[in-house]
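User: We ran a pulldown and think these components assemble together. Before we commit to crystallization trials, I'd like a predicted model of the whole complex to look at. Sequences follow.
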Amino acid sequence: MASRSLFSALVVVGVVVVGAESFNVVRADDAAQFDAAEIEFFEREIRPLLVEHCHDCHGAEDFEAGLRLTDRSSLLAGGDSGPAIVPGQPAESLLIEAIRYGPDSYQMPPDGKLPPEAIAALERWVERGAAWPGEMPASESAAASTTETDGDSDYWAFGPLASIVVPKVNDADWPGATIDYFILERLEAAGLTPAAPADRRTLIRRVTYDLIGLPPTPEEVAAFIDDNSDDAFAKVVDRLLDSPHYGERWGRHWLDLVRYAETYGHEFDYDIPGAFHYRDYVIRAFNADVPYDQFLIEHLAGDMLASPRRHPEEGFNESILATGFLHLGEAKHSPVDIRGDEAERIDNQIDVLSKTFLGMTVACARCHDHKFDPISAKDYYALAGFLQSSRYQQAFIDDPAPNLAVIQRIQQLLNERTELTRELELATTSSRQPTLQAPQSNVQSALPAMSPEQVLYAAFDGPDFESWHATGLAFGDEPVAAWEVAASGRALDGLRGGAAADSGRYAPQLSGVLRSPTFTVEHPRIWYRVAGQGTINAVVDSHRLIYGPLHGSLRLAIEQPHEFAWVSQDVTDYQGHKAYIEIIDDHRDAAILVDAIVFGGDEPPTEAPQPSSNDLSATTERDDAQSPVHATSRDSAILADLQAKLDAIDRQIETLRAQLKPSRRAPAMADGTPEDEHVHIRGSHRRLGDVVPRRLLTVLAGRSQEPLQDDCGRLALAHRMLTAARPLVARVIVNRIWHHHFGSGIVATCDNFGELGEPPSHPELLDYLAGRFIKEGWSLKALHRQLLISSTYRMSSRADAAAEQRDPTNRLLHRMPIRRLEAEAIRDGLLAVSGELGDAMFGPSVAPYLTPFMSGRGRPEKSGPLDGDGRRSVYISVRRNFLTPLLLAFDYPEPFSTMGRRGATNVPAQALILLNDPLVHALSEAWARRIVDGTASDTNERIRQMYERAFARLPTEVEQAAAAEFIEQRLVNSGRDELRAWAELCHVTFNLKEFIFIR
Amino acid sequence: MGHCHNIRSALTRRAMLGRCANGFGAVALASLLSDEAGASAPGNATVVDDPQAPRPPHYAPRAKNVIFLFMDGGPSQVDTFDPKPRLDKEHGQPIKMDVPPTQFDNVGTVLKSPWRFRPRGESGIPVSDLFPHVAECVDDLAIIRSMTAEFPEHTNANYFLHSGHGLQGRPSMGSWVTYGLGSECRDLPGFVVLDSGLIPPGGLSCFTNGFLPASYQASIFKSGQQPVANIDNTNDTPQVQRRKLSLIDQLDAAAAEQFGSSDKLESAIHNYELAFRMQAAVPDVADINDETEATRQLYGLDEKKTALFGRQCLIARRLIERGVRFVELLPPKVGGDRWDQHSKLHEGHQNNADATDKPVAALLRDLKARGLLNETLVVWGGEFGRTPMAQGSDGRDHNPFGFSMWLAGGGIRGGTIYGQTDDYGYFAVENRCEIHDLHATMLHLLGLDHERLTFRFSGRDMRLTDVKGHVLAGILA
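Assistant: Here's a predicted model for the assembly, 1476 residues in total across the polymer chains.
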């Protein structure tokens, strides 16, 4: 590479005239090599090619992929992928490879292959040493560099929380809560006064929708109006925060952040099994006011906690459910580029994780250092390492304790059974050696004989699973010795003398998964010596969505209940890829056993000759041994007694086994093999740069972060976020809550606190709230409370012309904004007002109602009910490719990435839905039936009740009269069809703007 | 995928523009009416209170509207517009080149085209016998033989073709165009997708507005009697509905009187007016009884094979006549599959061609006859092409490395062949085009600079063309 010291050795060797771009200076070392003919060849054949075909993208000013083709030293230095040429070796030169258009290389120039003679010329030029006339070396290295930052506390979002003095205001009577001082100070400075307080009816409708996403009932409205105590409103707030509907409302806000969905989208929209458990987790966590720092830890590492949070009544693992959010993204079956597909999934995980918790767009740094924020590509791949080191699992979430107690008793009985079997055998075959041996039976001799190209990967004959990891209870914590398997009384042929991983050791009912460490596939085939029923996956590049046409070989269905045999898996196409093995027992009544795994070879390893101690005979002769027919008469009484005991034990075992309960499963993270990721140059996994240690963004936590070695490091990452990035984490969540109560965040760009986001409108207020939030134990409910009891929140939304002029965007909050309700609140409001809303919570989602307009691959076979069984919208299944049109029309987000701020658009489809959708008509009729069947028979009284129910207010005389006239007219025109007339008025009410807006 | 490596210039200028676009003042206030998320408006548009209102382009357009004939599944280039004699010569032999991984990994021998190519029109451009009718219009077509896609799987490729990005969630090109230009039509949505029974892999998200305001989402028109969801007022008679609407007006006004109005409420009220007009306009556009017998015959409405797609092509013309900005047609369900012949290429492609060839040619002729072709851009193509060797014995697998599309109409130089593939028709080797280039060119013809048509989302000024795209000057008139 050219260095500046060479300048001293520059000599002028003559003037080479080749247009404006050339210089008459040549580096001494090169100049000496190139003769005039070579230089002339370069100028005649090569330079025009470079100028015409390459310099647009690889010129002096504008150079893609870090590569300039403007001088020889730049070619030697190369770009992201390394040197462009190796003089004398065209075959080693990337430039030549690229212009040859090989399928696996760059294909340059991109707009078409060069003519053969041009390619030949360039090959010849490189072959002969790549002569180049005099040049100035590039002024700086053209190699891609990635910048790293050491904390940038200058930028407001990353810095510590400022210690805030509550501002002084002129109108000391107005503030009702601390936040009001911050708001009022700015209003006063702008010459504005806060809007008048809202009336109680407006206020209770506003706060009820805000906190639980439903309208207040007339009884709740009346109670509030009649409550003369000073803290009447605070009581309403507390009642709503205690409502189970609070979690349904705010849980749904959270689901927007984690692009919650229950299918994988892509071509066939396959299910994400058990995804709803995550939704339920979120609802419960909000209702329980789980401290936000704990909530964050659970999201990043709930599977790694020594003592996870458990459901207070049902005992299942709550913490692990949180990690499921990482697996709720889009996923592809049959990717042609399986590693590239993994990179896409991880990219989405990083995007969601960093926007949700840090309000930062880290995913921008996938291909290059972030242009605006101090986030490097290295930062991105440092985060990727955490995910690369983690795995997907369908976690067993139920409390294992009850099953473990049963298992313990089963194990005791099995031990007794082993003893009895031994006695029985001794009694029947007294002349022979006992066939059931202690664990020291000759393990080595029992290993299969392998061909030279084969490698034994696992034999499961140690005291534990070593670096394998078992989940569920089926496999226990260690392999089972062959003699114990034999003594368990199961009919299995071909059991070796050593030991096996055995998911049936306690009971066929139990399920479990055994996972290997991650390894690099180096052989074309994997052999498993296996018995029973189950599934074996080779999980390559974390790809698990196996539905063909590609990758079918990675999943083996095991179906050999009665004997061990070798089965194999073709992994030819995956050599060089990372993989791990999953041995899965998810059968209710079967088990899977594996006693050897061998890499390589076209044929299975040959079986070792049976050890002379015939230690397998117990299995093959078991039936004989248990049968008293073969016993001598001398022992018959003893045998009968032993047999009776054995039978009694078997009965007890069966009774116990019947008590085992299968665990519920849910998508979650699992710790994998620790791995640091390479930088993918320009985001391409085919071009790897430096390895980056797993760490949090350097701008937040500095460059010298403690190395992570023992595990994937997610728990450490969570703690680092809560220490190094504590202020940012608090600011981001506090701002999200503010956004939903006041219509716009203090930082309007809720998901982007970076340079391209908007700066905070009230920075001191944000820091005050964040500081107080932390001090109050990260309690979201405490935060809601202090925002809602403020005078700010209780202002009217009525616009004042003069104030609008001074504060047209209402950034200073001189009044409360008028807000359109979210899609779910509109649908739930329709159900609630019509009386059709049920109160069931949690559980599997209701299938979406399918209209004829929802077609395409993966369409569910059956439509869900029109009214979604009266369930709240949060319980309607979120099928990526079949989202509910009614919700979509009102800006329900497509679940592709974090969406902290939904749109609130205004489109004709909304009017068309409210006017013509069958659900809206059905609910109008349901409401009308309740009115007609109700106690009030007077038209005016009925109209009053309708207004109270729909809008928490009474109609004015004008409204009353207009509605009454409508009813009268419709009764006349419909032959006094009362139900119909009232259904029409209900329908009109649903179509009033007031129904979908809150003031 | 390189996202943003072109943006090397002036950080501060960008940061500042970002602020302005996302920031304060009248623009932001106006944009609140249509969407809470700030829009960096195209052209000089500050008119955002009606998101559908027509907006001026960046410069003089060559075309006003677009009809995109989406040939879902990936028609084969070597059987349609890109003849390859080498396939005939080497038929049945192993292909003599390195084959990249394919979707089904079931690589057969070289497969010659079952259809004959012959030179057509004055330009003499060869078209296969699969398209006898479109072949007669070849002098109006600019055929790109060097298209490439980034993905060999349908769903990603469909998203990529529609939105310039391989994953779900980015706005579709029809959304971008209506966002940029609004629509000339006051009674119909600006972006219409005509569904003939086959929704492509990736589903309706292929037509999503993504992060753009929902006003720009596609309206799906089905081929049946009720083309649009909820357009049919089945519950009420027109009289009853009018009575209801009048009461709604009255009561909305009464509420505004009490509580003060706001722009948001006002525009929600206006919405009902457009919705009401749509209730009449949609059935009107779908009712083709006023078309002449000659037109019916032209589109093949009375022939079994062409009736369905012929009707859709005719509806497309009717939509364009009414000023709808962007119309996309999905291929008809013709018994087998869409253009995705992993086996039985001959039968499957023939069925698809039989159903679409005559209607597509009719659309071109009809537009031309009515003087609409020179202001309408017609684009034909799939998400990728197919392999020159067989998949199994008689199919072709996906090929994103080189395939054909054509454009016709406003601003297009007819009778053009642009780019070429190698001797097998596998890889584009000359004038290689990316989907981003296609998008850039389409926007260019509509008078929109693809680098200036942006929307601020997630900290970036997003574009249909991401950070890529070159206008394909070689196909422009």
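DSSP finds twelve helices and 18 strands in chain B. That may be worth checking against your pulldown data before setting up trials.

User: Thanks, that helps.
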